[in-house]
Design a protein that fits this description.
The chain is of the alpha+beta class. It has 22 helices and 15 strands. The strands form 5 sheets. The protein has a 5-stranded antiparallel β-sheet. Strands 8-11-9-10 form a 4-stranded antiparallel β-sheet. Strands 2-5 form a two-stranded antiparallel ribbon. The chain is elongated. The model has no long low-confidence stretch (mean pLDDT 81).
């Protein structure tokens, strides 16, 4: 029976189970959450209970791929708006860590090659370690990395868990502020009735007036005389008509200028007129714009709102549909059925998980990570498995669909696969680190460990304080940026556990590619000076 504990698959699930139980324990509101798995794994590894390394790679690619798929749609927009600020924090953190590594290595009289290994272990960077080994042709970087990496990974988790407590940051409030900021980027959509009083538009069609193009608002119903109906592009507006319009406050203001004043009068429901929320699940309409679908011309139907990732968006002609979007559709009863069929509206399909896009996307990412890129003729670097899979997932998620392949995943499927991958990764990393940390400390002493912990702690705390108080960054996002700058997957796990939003993952994904390059550059520099 005792031999069963040493079986890799049994050890994996035993560590995960004990870690989840430990992580659920709270002390004065503080808990380790999912990160507790790595602490259990360290203890198990010290006593020779190991999880096969294959689980580490599989777990890593699952975790990173789902992070990229989740962050992809918002990543590029976030990069345009806050990219410089995020990248500045990343550059500061890695630069401070490199300087500390240089001075502490000299202060303690350590071999520079050993020092560059400590630098990479403290920031948990395998890509930087590979660069250091390549240029030094020495095993010393691996020694420094092996001693410091477990402590660096654990310290990154602890710092991310403790900083909100020490700085008295209300993470729920930070999450609320993040979501409110996201809502500002997509202003709330409301409904308003107007009376046509502008003589210049009397008798002209909606298409001629270009109301949708000029105002970004949508006319969902018109009352002409005693008739109420859904409009089409050829529908004409006449003085005295009442129109129901959906749009942002800014769009509604423009509509008022174009057609006439607002009214509080209620518009009666048209006979046979339906309003329903419809799910986009059909491959045929994904990545198509509303102009391409032209539902008004073909079905006399109008999309008045788009709900995506919990945010309501005011639709316009160039709005592109994504898998899982919810559309508020206004149409007569007969056409409602036809449009629902066109869009899919299949909740079962939304909840299903197709593994082809996942496996194919990971293959693309692994191949991308294996490609070496020249850096101004000085050296070559590759993204590695982590960087390649993350980059591929971000791009594929942004694309949305390639032929019959839909790259987006439902929220439930993404969360399940991400958590499974992370648990596998933490359990494996922890056991292999725990197996060697005691011997390494006996052989090389505590100097390496304390040096590594200093290089981990000071840059993380310093950049967090600057990001919080000088740059006024959202704390949930800031934790993700710090974890990404550290290239720390366990750190991201700790940051992601602090919020139900994608704030941490977006921050991590934004800076991670730069962090990879900076770690390689500084590793090369530290190896030769």
């Amino acid at each position: 029976m005792t031999d069963l504990i040493y079986e890799g698959y049994f050890a994996l699930f035993l560590i995960i189970t004990l870690g989840i139980i430990l992580g659920s324990v709270k002390f004065r509101g503080f808990s380790l959450d999912i990160s507790a798995v790595v602490f259990v794994a360290l203890i198990m590894g010290h006593y020779g209970i190991m999880v096969p390394e294959a689980f580490q790679t599989i777990g890593l690619v699952f975790f990173i791929f789902t992070i990229g798929i989740q962050a992809g749609p918002g990543f590029f927009d976030a990069f345009k708006k806050t990219g410089r600020q995020f990248l500045g924090v990343c550059l500061l953190l890695v630069s401070v860590a490199a300087l500390l590594s240089f001075f502490l290595t000299r202060f303690f009289g350590l071999d520079p090659h050993l020092g560059v290994g400590i630098f990479n272990g403290a920031l948990t960077s395998t890509s930087g370690l590979a660069a250091a080994i390549d240029i030094s042709e020495s095993t010393l970087p691996s020694v420094g990395y092996g001693v410091v990496y477990p402590a660096g990974a654990v310290m990154a988790i602890l710092i991310i868990h403790l900083l909100p407590v020490i700085l008295r940051v209300d993470m729920k409030d930070e999450e609320k502020r993040y979501l409110e900021k996201a809502q500002e980027d997509h202003p709330a959509v409301s409904v308003q009735n107007f009376v046509v009083e502008n003589k210049n538009i009397h008798g002209k069609t909606i298409r001629e007036l270009g109301i949708g193009t000029m105002t970004r608002a949508v006319i969902s119903r018109i009352k002409h005389g005693g008739d109420v109906y859904a409009p089409g592009g050829k529908t004409r507006l006449y003085l005295g008509d009442m129109v129901k319009v959906v749009g942002t406050d800014e769009a509604l203001d423009k509509v008022e200028l174009m057609i006439g004043p607002r009214t509080d009068k209620e518009m009666p429901q048209a006979a046979g007129y339906k309003i329903n929320w419809v799910l986009v699940t059909s491959k045929e309409v994904i990545n198509k714009s509303l102009n391409e679908l032209n539902l008004t011309a073909y079905y006399n139907a109008t999309i008045t709102r788009i709900r995506r990732s919990g945010v309501e968006i005011s639709p316009h002609g160039n709005s592109t549909l994504r898998f899982g979007d919810k559309l508020l559709l206004a149409s007569d009863e007969d056409n409602m059925t036809r449009v629902m069929k066109l869009l899919g509206n299949n909740e079962k399909r939304l909840s299903e998980t197709n593994f082809l896009p996942i496996s194919l996307g990971i293959i693309i990412g692994v191949l991308l990570g294996a490609v070496s890129f020249p850096f101004f003729g000085l050296f070559e670097f590759s993204l590695g498995i982590t960087g390649g899979v993350l980059t591929a997932a971000l791009v594929l998620s942004r694309i949305g669909k390639t032929g019959p392949v839909i790259w987006n995943m439902s929220g439930g499927a993404n969360n399940l696969l991400r958590k499974l991958g992370l648990l596998m990764f933490l359990a494996t990393v922890g056991t292999h680190a725990g197996a060697h940390i005691a011997d390494a400390l006996i052989e090389y002493g505590w100097t390496l460990l304390w040096t590594g912990l200093t290089i981990t702690t000071i840059p993380m705390v310093l950049t967090t304080l600057i990001g919080r108080y000088a740059l006024k960054m959202n704390f949930a996002t800031l934790l993700g940026v710090v974890a990404g700058s550290m290239t720390s997957t366990p750190g991201l796990a700790a940051a992601d556990a602090k919020t139900d939003s994608d704030a941490a993952t977006l921050g991590y994904a934004t800076v991670y590619p730069l962090a990879l390059v900076l770690m390689i550059i500084f590793s090369k520099v530290l190896s030769v000076i």
